[in-house]
Amino acid sequence: MDSGIGLLAATAAVRRLRPDADLVLSLDPDGMPWGPRTPEDLTGRALAVAEAAAAHRPDALIVGCNTATVHALPALRARLEPELPVIGTVPAIKPAAAGGGPFAIWATPATTGSAYQRGLIRDHADGVTVTEVPCWGLAEAVEHADEAAIDAAVTAAAALTPADTTTVVLGCTHYELVAERIRAAVQRPGLPPLVLHGSAGAVAAQALRRIGEQPAPGTEATGTLTVLLSGREGGLPAAALAYAEGQLLRAVASAR
Fold it and tell me: Global pTM?
């Protein structure tokens, strides 16, 4: 679940780990974007989207959105667990800090500098140089597959990223869809290859662990795809097909 196509990265990661899994994507085009909403309003939207997905009786629910995880995860778990395990999305600050070098966290302006993100830095990156980079307009540009706007937002965020940065944490699920463009913009001559840390792979693996399943990437690709748009069954948004993750899922839908 997510307000928009930020959930594609985690969904594609599940698909690669378990090609036989039936997938339900629950988006909220009627209520997006969630970022500018109050925490209470966002939580209400997230609960509605989650309950639409829960009606399809899934084995687990992935909250494929950092902002929704920050504000709505306790309410989602209170409403749905223990019958339905709920897995949140947390920026990969801990593994980035383990690398020891200076790193940057690219996140939405609302998340950058937030008590939530500062708490993760304090808990997992004490003693490591960390730069919080607000990425103005990047999530919105990715959501609409607006190439010019993506380039402008990535360029602006790269300009705020210190020249000695060796690692970037992608603190918004939308950013994982344009990871290589971010790498190209931030990579500095003479430095080692830039390391990017997203959350999709870890979130997908955690979802399988929570339901007692093992990865089986060689399994026959028999899984189905259901897309819910503010509770109504529909298709993948057109913008999703601009990304490799969306194209992978379109192949699932075509096989239904």
Answer: 0.92
